[in-house]
């Protein structure tokens, strides 16, 4: 809680809404093997899904321990490919550039961007536990001078205006109001800076949110936006799309493999597949220029 002095009256302003506190509770408690066992492979902890063709031969492995290890490794490879794909759209960054990772989770995306471009990164998460974990990882890698994580609200980061060459949300936009989010990205990005999101959105052509989309919302305590909302909110906030790509077909092999990974499933796998296959849900990449 902070206190604001507006003229003669003092009003208490909650630093986060009750909803945001519940979302933080979820991520402070989250220890899904599908996130931790994958991350432990190379200390790159992702909180997003995968893209690309899956090597399903890992399922044929007869030795149970080896099968488990190979399936885990293959899912991690696909998630890592997704993170690299997002990073490849951030523009030609240099080691002097600074990037902003909105909803950074346990930190994998910022590490990927730093390893690729040598850039500085500020990651922001509403979960104190995730920020602490991510900072420990950065120290362990010896990159903590350039890669930093903050326990802050991505809508109101307090980071410096115009200081960032690129920014992104990797599957974190569904936790916030898009106008508030894009206003903060537009404030942080310099003119000509690049914003990228990979997100799950519901398909306006389907109508409204399907049963499956609603189940995904309930599972993660989020609120998946329609595809149209992204473009409206970007247009209102100085973000002009330069590349839009439907990654739905590219993410299906990840879910088909994940549903077979009995040591890792969380129970949401078939719902994702149904949502993608019935046309109500799309996995989208949007890259935009900050004008
Ligand atoms: C994956 O995180 C992403 C989210 C929780 C946001 C919802 C995304 C949509 C596209 C709707 P995670 O890696 O922590 O999830 P899981 O534990 O299921 O792997
Ligand atoms: Mg995951």
Describe the structure.
- With 291 residues, this protein is an alpha/beta fold.
- The chain has one domain: Rossmann fold (3-Layer(aba) Sandwich).
- The chain has helices spanning 18-29, 33-39, 64-87, 108-117, 128-141, 178-188, 211-220, 227-236, 248-258, 269-277, and strands at residues 2-6, 9-13, 98-102, 120-125, 147-151, 164-170, 189-202, 239-246, 281-290.
- It starts with a strand and ends with a strand.
- Residues 1-7 have low confidence and may be disordered.
What features would you highlight for this structure?
291 residues, alpha/beta, Rossmann fold, seven-stranded mixed sheet, two-stranded antiparallel sheet, 10 helices, 9 strands, 22% strand, binds geranyl diphosphate, binds magnesium ion
Task: State the domain count.
Answer: 1
As for the CATH topology, it is Rossmann fold
Spatial strand arrangement across the major sheet: 5-4-3-6-7-9-8
Q: What is the number of E strands?
A: 9
